Amino acid sequence: QVQLVESGGGLVQPGGSLRLSCAASGSIFSFNSMGWYRQAPGKQRELVAAITPVGSTNYADSVKGRFTISRDNAKNTVYLQMNSLKPEETAVYLCNARIVTITSSIVEYWGKGTLVTVSL
C-alpha cells in the first residue's frame, strides 16, 4: 500500500503564490509518474501538472508559465510551485502517483487533497 500526504494549501490573494508538497510512502518499487490534479466545486477533476522520474513534465495549458512541478526522487516527494494565482483556480488540489509494482503493473494512488483558496 502507498500513502500520499499533501501539504501547503491555504488562502492566498489573487496574484499570490503557494507551494504544494506531496510525500509518498509505503510499498514503492518505482514510479511511473507523480502529479497534481485539481477539482473545483461542480467541475470535473483536471490535470494540473505531472512529472516522470527522469524529469519529463506535462502541464495544463492554463498553468503553463506560472506553475512549476518538481520532484525529489530520494524523498519520494513532488512539489508544485504556483505563481500568479487566479480566483478561478480555487479548488482542492490532489496528489496523484502511478506506482510500478514489483510485477511491473501500474497502480494509481490519490492523496486526500489540499484546499487552495484564491480570494481577497
What does this structure look like?
The chain is mainly β and 120 residues long. The chain is built from no helices and 11 strands. Strands 2, 4, 5, 6, 9, 10 and 11 form a 7-stranded mixed sheet that branches. A 4-stranded antiparallel sheet has the order 1-3-8-7, with no helix packed on it. Strand 9 (91-100) and strand 10 form a beta hairpin.
Question: How would you concisely characterize the structure shown here?
Answer:
The chain is mainly β and 120 residues long. It contains no helices and 11 strands. The termini are far apart.
Tally the helices: 0
- Give the helices and strands as they follow along the chain: EEEEEEEEEEE
Helix content, binned percent: under 10%
Using DSSP, what is the number of strands? 11
What's the pLDDT, averaged over the residues? 94
Q: Strand fraction band? A: over 45%
How far apart the termini lie comes to 40 Å
So what's the overall shape? elongated
Radius of gyration, in angstroms, nearest whole number: 14 Å
Unreliable stretches, pLDDT < 50, 5 or more residues? none
Give the structural class.
mainly beta
**Largest sheet data:** 7 strands, mixed
Sum up the structure in keywords:
single chain; mainly beta; four-stranded antiparallel beta sheet
Write the layout of secondary structure elements.
Blueprint: E1 2-7, E2 10-12, E3 18-26, E4 30-39, E5 46-51, E6 57-59, E7 67-72, E8 77-82, E9 91-100, E10 106-110, E11 114-118
